[in-house]
Design brief:
The chain is an alpha/beta fold and 433 residues long. It has three domains: 117 residues, Rossmann fold (3-Layer(aba) Sandwich), CATH 3.40.50.12160; 227 residues, pyruvate-formate lyase- activating enzyme, CATH 3.80.30; 59 residues, Nucleic acid-binding proteins (OB fold (Dihydrolipoamide Acetyltransferase, E2P)), CATH 2.40.50.140. Helices cover 34% and strands 21% of the residues. It contains 13 helices and 19 strands. The strands form five sheets. A six-stranded parallel sheet has the order 2-1-3-4-5-6, sandwiched between helices. It has a five-stranded mixed barrel with strand order 15-16-17-19-18. The chain has a three-stranded parallel sheet with strand order 7-10-11. Strand 5, helix 4 and strand 6 form a beta-alpha-beta unit. It is globular and about 65 Å long.
Length: 433
């Protein structure tokens, strides 16, 4: 049976789709490889969230075509630009939309017979293929579980709802079953992802069900940590905060992208426009020793110097434990595409730099508080230099900091070990066992 290669771009939610594609291929008898040199056919699962992500995906497509591969393009880029992609790169063999990847076997058969295939639903509706067992690309300490896809919000800068359709939750029992299977495979940490995790269940149970889901996950034997990403400001209710505080397996980490602080900017972004300070204080009061991660957009159309200074002061006052900052990216198909006045890219970059410098100082002070303390850390891997790489419960994989551990002991990836922190930098910790 032929080998099929896959290249995956984009977010953790896209990674889950890539793993489902691999699951479909495996179920249908295909051998799979992540080494594109081993296959004539290469599936490239693309990202189209911002222009930089699109460029990275297009680079992969051109590289594979130059290597004389039969290229099947799936994911957000093909959903957004199906016709333009084929016109720009006629060598592409197929384009498959964000919610059409379950038809991948039929697409491959047609490609092998020399046909060009365009399988893109103009009105995407994401239905999770529950009968498929994911083939994980990133086996190890952590694994993502997609609890929903699509989005009912229409934030000004975001193209996702138009590429993935409205919000669709998975059934609670299906998520629990998947979590149990992952734990059997040796996964220690489960990370829940969706465009908005806090809206989980509202479409199928008529009320938010994230608390109930977390309580059920907390009962799974052998599971170490449960992490929730992408919370939405209006859904941070006391019931959810109490669940996070009370369940011992849920890490005390809240990821809540706020995007801005000034009410005028939040209205322009079509985001919840209220004073976020009481909400942040309430999260800290309700969850003992919580770590809060957030993200902001600078340079959004209409952002004045006054709006930006308001954001700087907000960051100084709130002292977030973890923070990401993004320069606004003008994307066709988003509500903000036609908004004026535009902020010059140079100004946006200056604002990005200033906000990151404010956060660096906060982050260093936060990390220095760990020095001398002994904290549980999940073992990730060994570095090329032989150092052990780990994470505290306050750090999500790939986006937050790490702990470099000095030890002579042999540590097993996936295990949770007590580590004494001996020094700190702005983003990372150094520990010993």
């Amino acid at each position: 049976m032929k080998k099929i290669a896959l290249i995956s771009h984009g977010c953790a939610k896209n990674l889950v789709d890539s793993e489902l594609i691999l699951g479909i291929l495996t179920k249908n008898g295909y051998k799979i490889t992540l080494n594109e040199n081993e296959s004539d056919i290469v599936i490239i699962n693309t990202c189209s969230f911002i222009a930089d992500a699109e460029r990275e995906s297009v680079h992969s497509i051109l590289e594979m075509i130059e290597a004389k591969k039969k290229v099947i393009v799936t994911g957000c880029l093909s959903q957004k630009h199906a016709i333009e992609l084929k016109n720009a790169i006629p060598e592409i063999c197929a384009v498959v939309g964000t919610t059409d990847f379950t038809k991948i076997i039929d697409v491959i058969n047609k490609v092998e017979n020399g046909s060009y295939v365009q399988e893109v639903n103009p009105n995407p509706e994401y239905i999770y293929p529950e009968e498929i067992e994911r083939q994980q690309i990133t086996m190890g300490a952590s694994s993502y579980i997609k609890i929903a896809d699509g989005c009912n919000y229409r934030c000004g800068y975001c193209v996702i709802p138009y590429l993935r359709g409205n919000y669709k939750s998975r059934k609670l029992e299906n998520i629990i079953d998947e979590a149990k299977q992952l734990v059997k495979k040796g996964v220690t940490e489960i990370i829940l992802v969706a465009q908005d995790t806090t809206g989980y269940g509202i479409d199928i149970y008529n009320k938010p069900m994230l608390s109930e889901l977390l309580k059920e996950l907390n009962k799974i034997e052998g599971l170490g940590w449960i992490r929730v990403m992408y919370a939405y400001p209006t859904q941070m209710k006391d019931e959810l905060l109490k669940t996070i505080n009370d369940c011992e397996k849920i890490v005390k980490y809240v990821d809540i992208p706020l995007q801005h602080s000034h009410p005028e900017m939040l209205k322009l972004m079509n985001r919840p426009s209220f004073d976020y300070r009481p909400m942040i204080e309430n999260i800290r009061n309700q969850i003992k020793n919580v770590s809060i991660r957030t993200a902001f957009v600078v340079g959004y159309p209409g952002e004045t110097e006054e709006h930006f200074e308001h954001l700087c002061q907000f960051v100084k006052d709130m002292k977030f434990d973890r923070m990401g900052v993004f320069c606004y990216s003008r994307e066709k198909g988003t509500p903000s595409y036609s908004q004026k006045p535009l902020v010059p890219k140079r100004v946006a970059k200056q604002r990005w730099k200033k906000l990151m410098e404010i956060q660096q100082e906060i982050s260093l002070n936060r990390n220095q508080n760990f020095v001398g303390k002994t904290v549980p850390c999940i073992i990730e891997c060994y570095s090329d230099e032989g150092e052990v790489i780990a994470r505290t419960q306050y750090d999500a994989p790939e986006i937050d900091g790490i702990v470099n551990i000095k030890t002579d002991k042999h540590l097993v990836p996936g295990d949770i070990e007590l580590v004494k922190i001996i020094s700190a930098t702005e983003y990372d910790l150094i520990g010993e066992i």
